[in-house]
Amino acid sequence: MKIRVNVMLKEGVLDPQGKAIGHAFEVLGFSNVGEVRVGKTIELEVDTADREAAAAQGEAMARELLANLVIEDFAVEVAE
Amino acid sequence: MKIRVNVMLKEGVLDPQGKAIGHAFEVLGFSNVGEVRVGKTIELEVDTADREAAAAQGEAMARELLANLVIEDFAVEVAE
Amino acid sequence: MKAGIVLFPGTNRERDMAQALRLVSGRDPVMLWHRDTSLPQLDLVVLPGGFSFGDYLRSGAMGAHSPLMREIRSFAERGGHVLGVCNGFQILTEAQLLPGALLRNAGMRFLAQEHFLRVETADSPFTRDWSKGDVFRAPLAHGDGNYTAAPDVLDRLEAEDRVAFRYVSAQGQDDAADRRCNPNGSQRSIAGVLSENRRVCGLMPHPENLVDPDLGATDGVPLFSSLVKSLVA
Amino acid sequence: MSMTVNAELAARFGLSAEEYQKVLDIMGRVPSLTELGIFSVMWSEHCSYKSSRVHLKTLPTKAPWVIHGPGENAGVVDIGEGLAAVFKMESHNHPSFIEPYQGAATGVGGILRDVFTMGARPVANLNALRFGDPSLPVTRRVIDGVVRGIGGYGNCVGVPTVGGEINFHPAYNGNPLVNAMTVGIARTDKIFLSAAAGIGNPVVYVGSKTGRDGIHGATMSSAEFDEHAASKRPTVQVGDPFTEKLLIEACLELMATDAIVAIQDMGAAGLTSSAVEMAGKGGVGIELDLDKVPQRETGMTAYEMMLSESQERMLMVLKPERTETARTIFEKWDLDFAVVGVLTDTARITVRHNGRTEADIPLAPLADEAPLYHRPLVHTPPPGRIGIVADPVGIEHALLTLLACPDLASRAWVWNQYDSGVGGQTSRRPGAADAAIVRVEGTRRGLAMTTDCTPRYCQADAHAGGAQAVAEAWRNITATGALPLAVTDNLNFGNPEKPEIMGQFADAVRGMGEACRALDFPVVSGNVSLYNQTSHPNGISTPILPTPAIGAIGVIEDVTKAVGLAMPEGCELVLIGE
Ligand SMILES: Nc1ncnc2c1ncn2[C@@H]1O[C@H](COP(=O)(O)OP(=O)(O)O)[C@@H](O)[C@H]1O
């Protein structure tokens, strides 16, 4: 089963990457762009046929490794 | 309108980050994990009410800056 | 040799590069600002190391879109000589003035260590003061130096003798699968490449940090003396 | 948490009942929340040095080559040829335990700002690190993050990391130490200080925008670290080395003009401490209009803005006619620039927000009546005699064991993540000599630098340990052929309210002072980090080992004469000393 974990900085935490990209858009002439936030996507295969088990495992993997809960939030999606 | 651009390394390009995470999962005891791929998510606001215009702009921003088409693919989503 | 060094916000090895050019060529380079919209009369444009725009999206990606890069592209198209070191190499690939791309180091860590390079061709304005097969020391200082390109691109680079430098062991052995020889995991151990007309060169290591006998090493001198020979008519 | 100002809230902000009573006396009324916040950070251990000041005063700080000793953002010493070395060490211990990468990274950022604030271009970073038991997973996670964070920040700003030290001991399990040191070079006639002057002069904010980062970091870092830390957890500050690099270049560019009257970085307790210190030192009043402060988030209160610890920000007083010159420079570097206030003749700090006065405090009593404690102390009993040690294993085995132990094993895996060559002046990188050597650009001179401390010596005998740390730093510099010049320190200890800890502190400082006097090696800057303790589930709280980390610099007139560790072939080994 395919899992996708999205990791984003928490609301209120400074996002230097987003800030720099937002600035680059201005330079490139995209003048109508508001706040930019950058996150990570981790896609992986887990060997199980059970959607719920897959979701639970994705959650466990995010907590243990993929997200730094001090500054990041995450969301787990299980693909169809 | 809120746009999300997902950027992933192309199929066939070796992903050092994904490989390192895959290895870490093994160490942590998640033994049923297949290939891991890591990508970036860029979320941003564009000041337009037109979904199609927003999608087209997201595509342009990805081509010009957010993705390096030599090694990366991208997908644009416009949020509801 | 009249050289210009491009400054992006976040560039940090411009002083090192200026010092090397001054020591070897006897002439002060001019400093160029990324927002400039014209280039002065120059023999050589150098993109130095650093973290242009923080390297926050991809190393070199935002720098490649600076206004001055348009001028540098047409300078290169007119046959001008361009050297990109470290972040400069990354910018040149992002701007597609050189083929390929630089991924995260295979070990996922920043590498800041002395290492060895082998000169793969002496047939270029950047390498003529070396002989093919020479091995020299050069410091590495990068997080994204893992060179990659499609297999047909790599084949073509080799067929056209456009691989300038390879990572090797102190004894000069290359082994792409062995991190002791090829520390960042680059494909085919490639550390530096040349453009089709051989006048644009990019490499990850820092020869500019090994040119001063007072600091104990001169391994990087031939890069600069080659350029002086080639560009001082 | 309820934000009604009373003794209970004051206690939660770290003010004792007595201290709160002093606040009431000074104000003649119940302070506003913002005012209470200002008092609590200014009177925190971190900003006021209330437990340590009486001891620090005994350290020698003068020598003919000292230009500025303690009291400025960093120490300044003359290194010849019209140049000065500007240097200091500072801790970021608690943030580095909460979030190792960002904690260490922002520690490096903070100490860099202390140095370039004075007009110096930073030329080298060093660090002194202590971690817990290396076999614990948490230690591995912390050390990995700290090392990456130091590298991530230093490599990006382009300041070489040239030296440091690492020790391990279970006493640091829940409280690692991350001490960062920066050395910069300035012209002796171009040193910038923080005392504000000129009634009516504009107060200018530059750098990054203000967010809700690390509110109450200064009081947090002075509070004992316990298992409730998670719930007190402030929003972690994220470092932005790219912005710092722009800030360095923009400030140095502005410093080449004559626009700046005074300048101060926003460190712990950001806007509060920078505004209070600049105005206080200059004996003037300051009025801030928070509506003008560049803000990253919406709806921030005056309290939040005054206490925010957002990184990469500076406060300056400019000559009014040069404000536009300054604005042009900061805009060129894509940095925020805003006139946020003005110097007044009221000798008060007033803070306005949304048309209301949120704080109005007389500056003199805020500084003069800051608490100062002669805390009770007991000395550590002298260690017993060790006697003759039996040798049960044989010298070869003993040697191999020593070489393999984490405290002595190669640190190459650490310094191979730090760019030690950027700048093109590094003459001796980590591992090459007893002290690192960086050439002074444009001269043949070199600066030698080192950090040293052996905490287990200090544990056994704080007085001898303090002296030994100074002596080791002096020897490391001397061994390269350089002349030792001056010292910065970072005094990391446990809870000063415990007499045994206070005894360690006092004795270590006394030992340091004696060694510094004997070696003509003055202390020109430093930092104190107390309350380095870990609470265990059973309610017991244990201190770290006493760790007075010493950073030191020296000068060698010709870098090509410097001596390293590598032994050339055919030389003889000579032992000097007992
Ligand atoms: N945290 C660190 N950062 C950078 N360099 C370090 C660090 N720790 C140790 N080093 C370097 O490693 C070398 C050996 O360190 P150490 O064993 O403490 O040496 P010494 O006992 O001679 O001071 C020194 O050059 C030192 O500067």
UniProtKB/TrEMBL annotation, chains A, B:
Q: Does the keyword Nucleotide-binding apply?
A: yes
Instruction: Provide an example Pfam family for this protein.
Output: PurS
One GO cellular component assignment for this chain's record is: cytoplasm
Which Enzyme Commission number(s) are listed?
A: 6.3.5.3
* Gene3D superfamilies given in the database record: Phosphoribosylformylglycinamidine synthase subunit PurS
Principal location listed in the UniProt entry: cytoplasm
Q: Which UniProt keywords apply?
A: ATP-binding, Cytoplasm, Ligase, Nucleotide-binding, Purine biosynthesis
Please give the name of this protein. Phosphoribosylformylglycinamidine synthase subunit PurS
Could you tell me which species this protein originates from?
Swaminathania salitolerans
What gene is this protein a product of?
A: purS
From TrEMBL, chain C:
Annotated EC: 6.3.5.3, 3.5.1.2
Keyword field contains Manganese: no
This protein's pathway reads: Purine metabolism; IMP biosynthesis via de novo pathway; 5-amino-1-(5-phospho-D-ribosyl)imidazole from N(2)-formyl-N(1)-(5-phospho-D-ribosyl)glycinamide: step 1/2
**Pfam families (alphabetical):** GATase_5
Kindly state which keywords UniProt assigns to this record, in alphabetical order.
ATP-binding, Cytoplasm, Glutamine amidotransferase, Hydrolase, Ligase, Nucleotide-binding, Purine biosynthesis
Q: Does the keyword Transport apply?
A: no
Q: Name one GO cellular component term.
A: cytoplasm
Where do the catalytic residues lie? C86 (nucleophile), H206, E208
Q: Where in the cell is it found?
A: Cytoplasm
Span of the secretion signal? none
Q: Which InterPro entries match?
A: Class_I_gatase-like, PRibForGlyAmidine_synth_PurQ
Task: Give one GO term, molecular function aspect.
Answer: phosphoribosylformylglycinamidine synthase activity
Reaction(s) catalysed by this chain, per the record, are: L-glutamine + H2O = L-glutamate + NH4(+); N(2)-formyl-N(1)-(5-phospho-beta-D-ribosyl)glycinamide + L-glutamine + ATP + H2O = 2-formamido-N(1)-(5-O-phospho-beta-D-ribosyl)acetamidine + L-glutamate + ADP + phosphate + H(+)
A biological-process GO annotation: 'de novo' IMP biosynthetic process
Query: Known PANTHER family for this protein?
Result: PHOSPHORIBOSYLFORMYLGLYCINAMIDINE SYNTHASE SUBUNIT PURQ (PTHR47552:SF1)
Q: How does it assemble?
A: Part of the FGAM synthase complex composed of 1 PurL, 1 PurQ and 2 PurS subunits.
Free-text function comment from the UniProt entry: Part of the phosphoribosylformylglycinamidine synthase complex involved in the purines biosynthetic pathway. Catalyzes the ATP-dependent conversion of formylglycinamide ribonucleotide (FGAR) and glutamine to yield formylglycinamidine ribonucleotide (FGAM) and glutamate. The FGAM synthase complex is composed of three subunits. PurQ produces an ammonia molecule by converting glutamine to glutamate. PurL transfers the ammonia molecule to FGAR to form FGAM in an ATP-dependent manner.
Protein's name in the database: Phosphoribosylformylglycinamidine synthase subunit PurQ
- Gene name of the record: purQ
